[in-house]
Write a structure and sequence with these properties.
128 residues, alpha/beta, Glutaredoxin, 35% helix, redox-active center
């Protein structure tokens, strides 16, 4: 099960998270959002506690949708220490998304566990 966050809980669950968070902006009417759900659940299982996966209903959280300038759904943001490190949107299909998720998994699960709650960009992390 994916943790659903809202504007009220976004800061605590995402921006202040001690581990990277993959945020899935979706909507109930979005067919592609439902199609990619199994890939996201598989990604969550493979990453374990290394990366947190959360969902945001873009329709019900308009302020977040505007803040992150969503142009299409689904949009996936990898946020680490309050900074967007990766943005996945307008992917061409399941295989395209699967490959992008695999690259994220490899980058974030094979590195030292030295996360900081400080919102700094100088942590030796790769940048988008």
């Amino acid at each position: 099960m994916v943790l659903l966050v809202s504007e009220r809980t976004f800061n605590q669950e995402v921006l202040e998270s001690p581990i990277p968070v993959l945020v899935n902006f979706e909507a109930p009417w979005c067919g592609l959002c439902r199609i990619i759900q199994p890939l996201l659940l598989q990604f969550k299982t493979q990453c374990g506690e290394e990366i947190k996966l959360v969902g945001v209903n873009a329709d019900q959280n308009f302020k977040l949708s505007t803040t992150y300038r969503l142009k299409s759904l689904p949009t996936l943001l990898l946020i680490e220490n309050g900074i967007v490190r990766e943005r996945l949107d307008c992917f061409r299909g399941r295989e395209d998304l699967r490959q992008a998720l695999e690259e994220i998994k490899v980058s974030y699960t094979n590195r030292p566990k030295t996360y900081s709650t400080a919102k700094t960009a100088d942590l030796g992390c790769r940048t988008a």
